[in-house]
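Before the break, one more example. Copy the sequence into your notebook; we will annotate it together after we see the structure.
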Amino acid sequence: MTIQTEPVRFDQARPLALAVAIDVAMSGVDVLVVRDILGRLALLLDDRSSKVSGASQGLWAERLTSTLGRYAADRPLLLASKLFQPKAFLASPRAAADIHYRPEPGHGSIRWLDNTVVGADWTRVSTPEQRAGDTRTARTALYGFKGGVGRSTATFMLAKHLAEQGNCVLVIDLDLESPGAGPLLVAEDQLPKYGIIDQLVESALDNEAGLDLVTQATHFQLQRNGELWVAPARGRGEPGSEYTYVDKLNRVYADVPGQGQGSFADRLEAAVRSCEDAVARESRRPDVVLLDSRAGIHDIAAVAISRLCDLALLFGSDNSQTWAGYRDLFTAWLSSGKAPEIREKLRMVASMVPDAEKATYLETFRDHAWECFSVLYDDLVDGDTGFNPSPEDAAAPHSPIPILFAAELVGLDAVSTPGWDDRAFVRAAYDSFLETTTNLMIEGPR
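Here is what the structure looks like once it is written out:
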């Protein structure tokens, strides 16, 4: 009688491959675990200084094939000495040390190289040291795992508040699928000819020079010497030409090897710099850049949070969907070894807080946020030092910045309601958010 065994699934394949990699590393050989875009795994052994016997090779290859099933690569065991350019893999900047393995003296190391179609930029975090020589404006990303949490309205309120304090502010609408901040800030007939989407499409062909990308906000008058500039997701187009937004959107995320700026992430970073440079040419360099990011686990959000910003405001309501989504994201940062680099520039925003139950709601929100953020914090035992703020730490990433719920804002057509943002109930809802986030942007995350 034949016993049917359950096939290996995606989540099971990685720990199975790691078990074999640990045995290899314990023999003194450095190991790179490579996962392809389908999830199949192979071990690349650096045998250039530590020789590997033929018997061991056969044993490890057979274990990989038999335990991984369909998730074993066609060549599950590779030797660096047999590759034409082993450094392309072994010295790849995308390879990260495995956080679950601590080598003992005489043992080899284990690193992971994950190849993906999309989403890789969640784990490519720019550190403060890498940004130290960058003279660009400080940037803040506003992000929500789920839509409908008031992110774009908060971007509007924060931008106006900063500009009214005399700052030169640039808002970049990166929500290409559902532009939000742009329409709130600029009348349609005052849009620039081109938007962020045009910059991304044209730069893939090195054709982005001369694009008109920014304009000043039109829906209110600023006091003092502040300025508020906007780079909308879409432009108004050339007179007499059809503006085919959807056709552009269908092409914007493609990586283009050997042409233009290549990857989508590089083009997005260049687009943000181009908008900053455009404001500098028209007036002065922006003091603050606000990136209104796409919701969800999306490539735009990945680049905005991991690579482009100095502060990331994470919006959410106190519900299971919010915490499940953020936990998945934090777990990805932990698994890639990027937790220490990302966690201190994050700050949680509690959106739509019920005013009548504010204190109780925020306490519960804070506790749930701490449980979620603990994925990114260090596990400390007595006497250890590290980053592990307490639930009550008001300056910690998990400590919520509140925005009160205002029923009057539900369904409000902000564009056709002049002065809506100066009403008393709106100011009351956003006062704490504006004060706290402004201080964070000026002083920086701790």
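Residues 10-115 form one domain. The first helix runs from residue 10 to 26. Try to locate both features in your own notes.
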